[in-house]
UniProtKB/TrEMBL annotation:
<dbReference type="GO" id="GO:0005737">
    <property type="term" value="C:cytoplasm"/>
</dbReference>
<dbReference type="GO" id="GO:0070006">
    <property type="term" value="F:metalloaminopeptidase activity"/>
</dbReference>
<feature type="region of interest" description="Disordered">
    <location>
        <begin position="783"/>
        <end position="813"/>
    </location>
</feature>
<dbReference type="GO" id="GO:0042277">
    <property type="term" value="F:peptide binding"/>
</dbReference>
<dbReference type="InterPro" id="IPR027268">
    <property type="entry name" value="Peptidase_M4/M1_CTD_sf"/>
</dbReference>
<dbReference type="InterPro" id="IPR014782">
    <property type="entry name" value="Peptidase_M1_dom"/>
</dbReference>
<dbReference type="GO" id="GO:0016020">
    <property type="term" value="C:membrane"/>
</dbReference>
<dbReference type="Pfam" id="PF01433">
    <property type="entry name" value="Peptidase_M1"/>
</dbReference>
<keyword id="KW-0732">Signal</keyword>
<dbReference type="InterPro" id="IPR050344">
    <property type="entry name" value="Peptidase_M1_aminopeptidases"/>
</dbReference>
<feature type="domain" description="Peptidase M1 membrane alanine aminopeptidase">
    <location>
        <begin position="378"/>
        <end position="584"/>
    </location>
</feature>
<protein>
    <submittedName>
        <fullName>M1 family metallopeptidase</fullName>
    </submittedName>
</protein>
<dbReference type="GO" id="GO:0005615">
    <property type="term" value="C:extracellular space"/>
</dbReference>
<dbReference type="GO" id="GO:0043171">
    <property type="term" value="P:peptide catabolic process"/>
</dbReference>
<feature type="signal peptide">
    <location>
        <begin position="1"/>
        <end position="23"/>
    </location>
</feature>
<dbReference type="GO" id="GO:0008270">
    <property type="term" value="F:zinc ion binding"/>
</dbReference>
């Protein structure tokens, strides 16, 4: 989950081009047939030695490895970072590299960045009338403009040198930097280089970013959340080579795994949380704090390492002295940290996978503003996340998992997450929170810690395919949230995506992240709903869970693409799902299956003594014509009643009277049957079952299984699932024959009775149609008033307030 919330690579074709490509491969030129079950082979990349047709890493799969050694200093007063770093780059690719690309994410805040220069104005509609209504520009927008104008932002980089101390040529391109190597880097070789860098930290509340500082006016302190804070190697991949697309804000990062050795110098009274394991606890923590950490390893509830009272005392201090915190992290793809004297700190050990597995320390860092909400739920939510996610993937692979409160609504990095919910300070000094804030905290901690699995370990490319981390993670956080407390409205059910599915303002899931029109529903909710449906409706839990876990374990510490996910889910489940990926991920179709008609059929036995009696009953059951009914009511005599002496054969026999001619024809028919045919017919006549034909329309275009609830005359109900393949020959209209026992006549049929398929119109799912429940509200009609002009003569007599008054404006007497 990002702050409160595909240009494709070489292996994926843009959706706009895919129809052209498919047309050139197989072209339908007759009729109106559309194959919703076409295989994805024409769209997915051709399997190779790097990525197999099964969706797993190929025998020659490779990825680069990058190690960082960083010394960084936080200047609290100037709100500036200065640092130096040495980078070791290992070229595991089969290619010789003449240059390296690095990401300079802080450059997004420069006034001449692509992101800033391409930003659009989103105010209200502009007007050119002689007396125009003013368009609106929020104070938040003005605040952002002013902050960026007042501060020099972006990286300052110097002293870029190779391991021999020779200068390296550097070219900065927006949020990217190319370093030209003095010697080409051959396959299997490594190179080392160093640089100094610095930047002014942005005020997160002013700018709206993924990191920055938050200032607290009342106590004069700051919380610093530092991410995207150092020049990092862009990924070099088998499917795209350098992933050097500029950072525009929505598209996040794909990075290389490596080891980090980071020394962080901060004011001596600060508490630091960071990616990795603290390597010098004896230098930066008191003996009491170290003892508390030891105690926290085996407790039912979190133990405070820094208590609230201690944090409040820290708030009052301030110091010119510094401490250096030393963190080491192995096999991670990024590094982030947080620092503040406001932090209280709690921790709890989590033993996973048996006592022989390493203990994981779940820890939370938060100021007094977090209150009981954070004390009760943050660290517990971390542990719950690991318990649930590990079932679906693998044991949590790192020594710590952390949740830090600050100005960022929600962001994730290896071993550390930034989460925003707070309590509200009331007049009596207490702190309270709403159910929405409780849900937000538990949900955001689950979501962000979940990201440590996806994409911090299963290393998908977020710059291109946002859904691969956000969608998969939103699906799993929906599982974890409902396993926490299903009565909390998590907003993760298929029904919760209906409004988006039928909206016009959307793009396919397989759209590059910076081009997505509505990131939340597109990257989070829709793919999560799709996976929920895949698990609960289409595959079932056993097949889905096996395949999903296979995907997670195959691509642990590796870089999967969408094709790898699609292929693994199919290969491991044993179910062809190309129709599902095509509909949910490559189109903007929605689900709207209408049950149009239900026909009740009776089997013709061919026996005239049976069939003609049935026809007589059908005729008798027809409504009496209004003319005949009224004549009877008026006691009008019929001619045949007044002339009873005139009769003939047809007064004794109706048109349904059976003759021997029909009986002879029937006997001849029976003699012509094969023995097995006679046996089948005799059984069908004896059983006299009910035959129903259900007629469906696919109004939304997205083919899906048809979930039925059949209600019988005796009050019993039966659930049936018609597979999506029923639409394979006609994706618009289908009919389905359903046979029930003689004593089980149908009285009603409902499609998707539990709202499990994101069907956008449940009212056409019932047969017979139901009376639609709704609401009506009584209101008092207000008299329309013409716009009142300013009464300056009256308003000028209003008393001017000093600013201390709390009552409303007092009218002049």
């Amino acid at each position: 989950m990002k702050k409160a919330v595909v240009t494709f690579g070489a292996i994926f074709l843009p959706l706009a081009l895919s129809s052209t490509v498919m047309a050139s491969a197989v072209e339908q030129t007759k009729g109106s047939y559309v194959d919703k079950f076409r295989q994805l082979d024409e769209v997915l990349p051709t399997p190779n030695v790097y990525r197999s047709a099964a969706g797993e890493p190929g025998e020659k799969y490779w990825q680069q490895h990058v190690n960082y050694d960083i010394d960084v200093k936080l200047d609290e007063k100037a709100r500036r970072l200065t640092a130096s770093q040495t980078i070791e780059y290992k070229n595991n690719s089969p290619h010789t590299l003449k240059y390296l690309w690095l990401q300079l994410d802080q450059n997004i805040f420069k006034s001449d960045s692509i992101a800033e220069r391409s930003a659009t104005f989103n105010g209200s509609a502009l007007q050119g009338d002689p007396q125009p209504k003013a368009t609106k520009l929020s104070l938040s927008q003005l605040r952002r403009q002013q902050f960026m104008s007042d501060n020099e932002l972006g990286f300052t980089i110097a002293n870029v040198k190779d391991d021999n101390g020779k200068e390296l040529k550097v070219t900065v391109v927006d949020t990217l930097m190319r370093i030209d190597l003095n010697e080409p880097l051959n396959p299997g070789k490594d190179t080392e280089f160093s640089m100094d860098f610095a930047f002014n930290i942005v005020e997160e509340d002013a700018v709206g970013a993924r990191s920055g500082y938050e200032h607290f006016e009342k106590d004069g302190n700051d919380i610093f959340l530092l991410a995207q804070w150092f020049p990092r190697l862009a990924a070099y991949t088998d499917y795209e080579a350098w992933t050097n697309k500029a950072f525009l804000g929505s598209g996040e990062f794909t990075l290389e795994f490596g080891d980090y050795d980071v020394e962080i110098t901060v004011p001596a009274d600060h508490i630091v949380s960071a990616t990795g394991k603290l390597d010098n606890a004896s230098s930066v923590l008191t003996r009491t704090q170290r003892n508390r950490l030891e105690q926290a390893k085996n407790t039912k509830r979190p133990v405070f390492i820094v208590t609230e009272d201690e944090a409040l005392e820290n708030e009052k201090e301030g110091t010119e002295k510094t401490k250096t915190w030393h963190f080491k992290a192995e096999n991670v793809r990024d590094f982030a940290w947080a620092s503040s004297r406001k932090f209280m700190w709690d921790a709890k050990g989590y033993q996973q996978g048996g006592n022989d597995q390493p203990l994981v320390m779940a820890m939370s860092f938060f100021p007094k503003e977090g209150g009981d909400l954070w004390k009760k739920y943050s660290t517990e939510a971390i542990v719950h996340t690991m318990e649930v996610y590990s079932r679906f993937s693998f044991d949590y692979p790192y020594p710590v998992a952390q949740s830090v409160n600050g100005p960022v609504g929600g962001m994730e990095y290896p071993m550390i997450t930034f989460n925003g919910p707070r309590t509200e300070l009331q007049d009596d000094g207490s702190r309270t929170y709403s159910q929405a804030e409780k849900r937000f905290l538990i949900g955001v901690v689950i979501h962000e810690v979940g990201h440590i699995y996806f994409p911090m370990v299963v290393n998908s490319d977020e710059r291109q395919w946002t859904w691969m981390d956000e969608g998969l993670n939103s699906f799993l956080d929906g599982v974890a949230g409902r396993e926490w407390d299903p009565t909390i409205p998590w907003g993760v059910e298929p029904r919760d995506v209906v409004a988006y599915m039928k909206s016009e303002n959307q793009v396919p899931i397989m759209t590059q992240s910076d081009s997505v029109l509505r990131l939340g529903p597109n990257a989070y909710t829709k793919p999560a709903a799709a996976l929920n449906i895949l698990r609960e409706v289409i595959l079932g839990r056993e097949l889905f869970d096996f395949a999903f876990k296979e995907y997670a374990q195959r691509w642990k510490y590796k870089r999967p693409t969408p094709a790898d996910f699609f292929r693994t889910m199919e290969e491991a489940s044993g179910v062809d799902l190309d129709w599902f990926w095509r509909g949910w991920f490559y189109s903007t179709d929605h689900v709207d299956i209408s049950l149009d008609k239900v026909y009740q059929l009776r089997l013709d036995t061919k026996n005239p003594d049976i069939d003609f009696n049935r026809l007589r009953d059908i005729e008798a059951a027809k409504p009496m014509p209004l003319f005949v009914e009224r004549n009877k009511a008026e006691a009008k005599k019929l001619w045949i009643e007044e002339n009873t002496d005139v009769t003939d054969f047809y007064d004794e026999n109706d048109r349904f009277t059976v003759t021997n001619k029909e009986r002879n024809s029937y006997n001849k028919f029976l003699k012509g049957l094969e023995p097995w045919e006679r046996k089948v017919l005799d059984r069908a006549v004896a059983e006299d079952k009910n035959y129903y034909v259900l007629e469906f329309s696919n109004l939304g275009g997205l083919v899906m299984p048809i979930l039925l609830e059949l209600t019988y005359e005796d009050g019993t109900k039966e659930a049936r699932m018609i597979p999506a393949e029923i639409w394979r020959r006609n994706h618009k209209h289908v009919q389905k024959l359903i046979i029930t026992d003689k004593n089980k006549p149908l009285v009603s049929v409902t499609v998707d009775p539990r709202w499990e398929t994101a069907d956008v119109d449940v009212e056409n799912n019932n047969y017979p149609r139901r009376i639609i429940p709704s609401r009506i509200e009584v209101y008092k009609k207000e008299q329309s008033k013409a716009k009142v002009s300013r009464d300056i003569m009256h308003d000028i007599k209003t008393e001017l307030k000093t600013g201390d008054e709390k009552d409303s404006d007092k009218e002049p007497e």
